[in-house]
Amino acid sequence: MSANPLRSSELIQMVLPAEGQPGSGTSYAQEAWSPASFEREQIRGLVRQVFFASIAQPVRQLVVSATEPEIEIGNLCRQIGHALSLETQESVAVVSRNSGFIQDAVREKKVDRGGESSPLRQISMRVRSNLWFVPEPWSMVESRQMVTNLSVYARVMELRREFEYSVVEGPSAGKSGEAAALGQLGDGLVLVLAAHSTRRATAKKIKEKLEASQVRLLGTVLSGRTFPVPESIYRRL
């Protein structure tokens, strides 16, 4: 782990390598160490600590939010959902803000709906027996400018009824209060920082704002960390 601007003994810390690093395209079957295998181990550890470490305060619905809107977290949310679906037999939903690919797949009937009668599952993409990719449900009730806290609350409760676990791709925590509002409805929030662009002061301010809103901050992810080791060295590890 590297130095983290939000370091705390109570927070889960995770580091993800930058895309394009040697070995970043390694398949799941390969056992040799690489940034890709390191990333998978980090995500697996995050899943186990977030969802299964606390009996007193169980997490069923996790919100993932970035410090800045430029940080892409959709793929991270899908990876967390996939890792979670391997750890449990219960239903897992990943809620994506970029839902175009999900809606297109469902519209073209290229995905398995599994005979589901649930309205929410009918508009979702089933990717394995217990894992669904779900379009952001509150964006479909009314225009983005008119979405109310009540409508978001209703959709979040619908997610809870339909799925045992859910990983929600939230808006940027640094640009509006939407992330805090969503974090209040969920069981906790994980904050994603960019290794080479997120300023320490910015991260600290966001952390304080989330805590003031009584959002349960579970941990941080430092994304885009580079590992300055030649590829030839990776191959011998």
Kindly list the characteristics that best describe this protein:
8 helices, Rossmann fold, 20% strand, alpha/beta, disordered N terminus, single chain, 237 residues, disordered C terminus
Characterise this structure.
This protein has eight helices and eight strands. It is of the alpha/beta class. Helix content is 36%, strand content 20%. The protein has helices at residues 35-52, 74-87, 100-107, 119-122, 149-162, 178-185, 200-212, 231-236; strands at residues 12-17, 61-66, 92-96, 125-128, 131-135, 165-169, 188-194, 217-225. The protein has a single domain, classed as Rossmann fold.
How would you summarize this macromolecular structure in one to three sentences?
With about 240 residues, the protein is an alpha/beta fold. The chain is about 35% helix and about 20% strand.
Helical content (DSSP H or I, runs of 4+): 25-40%
Mean pLDDT: 77
Helical run tally: 8
- H/E element sequence: EHEHEHHEEHEHEHEH
Q: In angstroms, what separates the terminal alpha carbons?
A: 19 Å
CATH architecture: 3-Layer(aba) Sandwich
Percent range for β-strand residues: 15-25%
User: So what's the CATH class?
Assistant: Alpha Beta
Basic shape: globular
